[in-house]
Amino acid sequence: MVAARAGAKQACKVVVDVSPTEAAVGTRLCALFADAARKAIADKGSFTVAVPGGSVLKMLGGLKEQKGIDWSKVHLYYVNHKVLPHSDPASTHKKALAGFVQAVGLPEANVAAPLEPAPGQDLSAAASAAASDYESRLRAAAASLGLPLAQSGAPRLDWMLLGMGADGHVGSLYPNKPTLEERTAWVLPFQKSADAASITLSLPVMAAGREVVICLTGAKKAPAVRLAVEGGAQPGELPGAMVAPAPDATLTWLLDEAAAAELGGKR
Ligand SMILES: O=C1O[C@H](COP(=O)(O)O)[C@@H](O)[C@H](O)[C@H]1O
């Protein structure tokens, strides 16, 4: 079921797209991704997309079934990434390569892999270096691909695909953290604990997507979905609700029935 909503505070068009099961959400996600890629490539010769980790990345395995995409014209970025060697089983880059990139024939040169930590490097220093490197690469790509910039100055990727945690976190932007206040940097380091750090796109870059798709499933996330879609979160409480795309953008909530269960009204 697909419904456009006017209720949320975003100025952009908001679509709530509900499928019966998690598997059906995965199928729908890959079909929408493929449609957007084919259209962008036909219209302007390239498709730029940022993808998250977690359950949404796994769903992208279904892209293997999609036909008619010129993968040499697709440019892939990560919404967030743990500061780890690419050989680490928890590396999102490693999972993306194995999950769909290699199978569909997306050239690895078109995948912006984050800088790996140097052996023995201090984690916080490695996170800062990786964030700064990723931002430089994104700036270079924005220039070479001619990406338009949003009013915030952030690059407008064609598709900004986000997951959201039950606590409302998107990428590595967590509730009530100073990273939510960032307005200038495109990529930020975030140290979650003494032994876990990541880099993440900033809120302005997430919001700058020409299409922003927030995909999530499961009953545990239903309260966060209700708050984000219908409003009412306290400032800083729910990062997913703080992604406010431009008026000419579309924000699509791609949900299963369980995640949509607390939404009232028409959906
Ligand atoms: O920590 C993270 O969580 C979100 C949501 O993950 P999910 O497995 O519950 O879908 C994810 O989008 C993000 O990339 C990841 O770092």
UniProtKB/TrEMBL annotation:
What biological-process GO terms show up in the record?
Answer: carbohydrate metabolic process; pentose-phosphate shunt
Q: What is a single molecular function from GO for this protein? A: 6-phosphogluconolactonase activity
Q: Where is the Glucosamine/galactosamine-6-phosphate isomerase domain?
A: 21-247
EC number annotated for this UniProt entry? 3.1.1.31
- Give the pathway: Carbohydrate degradation; pentose phosphate pathway
> Sorted alphabetically, which InterPro entries does this protein's record hold?
6-phosphogluconolactonase_DevB, 6PGL, Glc/Gal-6P_isomerase, NagB/RpiA_transferase-like
One matching Pfam family is: Glucosamine_iso
As for family, the record states:
Belongs to the glucosamine/galactosamine-6-phosphate isomerase family. 6-phosphogluconolactonase subfamily.
Q: What is this protein called?
A: Probable 6-phosphogluconolactonase
